[in-house]
Amino acid sequence: MPTLGYLSLIIIWAAASAVGLVLSLIVTNPLQIGPVGVTVWFLVLFTGSTAVFTTILYAVKSFLHIHGISSARLRYSWRQGLLLGGWVTGVLALSSLHQFNLRDAILLGLLLGIIEVYVRLRWP
Question: What range does the domain containing 105 cover?
Fold first, then answer.
């Protein structure tokens, strides 16, 4: 599948997950959906935020002409979108458990920075 096909699937998933998350916030609450529902909600949040960040990063990299090949641009954007989506989901999960403070957000951000540096230096 060409890069445009993958990108269109990512955009469709981002829109579908955003609609699903907003509807779930309006219609239900965590007590109604239970622990499994909350887990599924966070998984949809993770994949949806990953799709949104991937799309934004791909658009910015296309505008700035970073990574000459569009498939490489999508691959790097996907990896960085996964990291950013994981950070947002982790921060919100910690916040919902009342285990969040600024130090945790900074530590998670540093961990993601270390992972990004490691992957960039490890892979050609």
Answer: 3-122
